[in-house]
Design goal:
With 117 residues, the protein is mostly beta strands. The protein is 0% helix and 62% strand. The chain has no helices and 8 strands.
Length: 117
């Protein structure tokens, strides 16, 4: 398997729930870890995917493969990846290799997901 170079530092964020002083649930994204990964864009941004407009603005979708060494437990729960200020939402997670040495995450990012997710 050609995994390429693990040359991108990717932050992995998990969805966590805490309670405020009044007992209300607060749901936030929290950085779980940073990991080295390879990044391979699969589809260029294009208005041909998804909704063509949201609130009058065009929506563009990018799809990419992130390859990580090993299979960390964080990839079994609710998570997202952050690379270059953009938030990538996982679509599919798979182990590869004869002993599961690699984890490949297929993720998508919409132009309205960046800078705030």
């Amino acid at each position: 398997m050609n995994t390429g170079k693990l040359d991108r530092k990717v932050s992995v964020e998990t969805y966590t729930t805490t309670r405020d002083q009044y007992g209300q649930e607060l749901k936030t994204w929290t950085e779980d870890s940073s990991r080295w990964a390879s990044f391979e864009a699969r589809v260029s941004p294009s208005a041909a995917f998804g909704d063509t407009e949201v609130l009058g603005q065009p929506v563009m979708r990018s799809v990419a493969l992130f390859t990580f060494r090993n299979s960390p437990p964080v990839f079994t729960g609710e998570f997202r990846l952050v690379l270059g200020g953009n938030y990538w939402n996982p679509v599919q997670v798979a182990s590869q290799g004869t002993r599961g040495e690699w984890t490949v995450v297929v993720a998508e990012m919409f132009n309205n997901d960046s800078h705030g997710g």
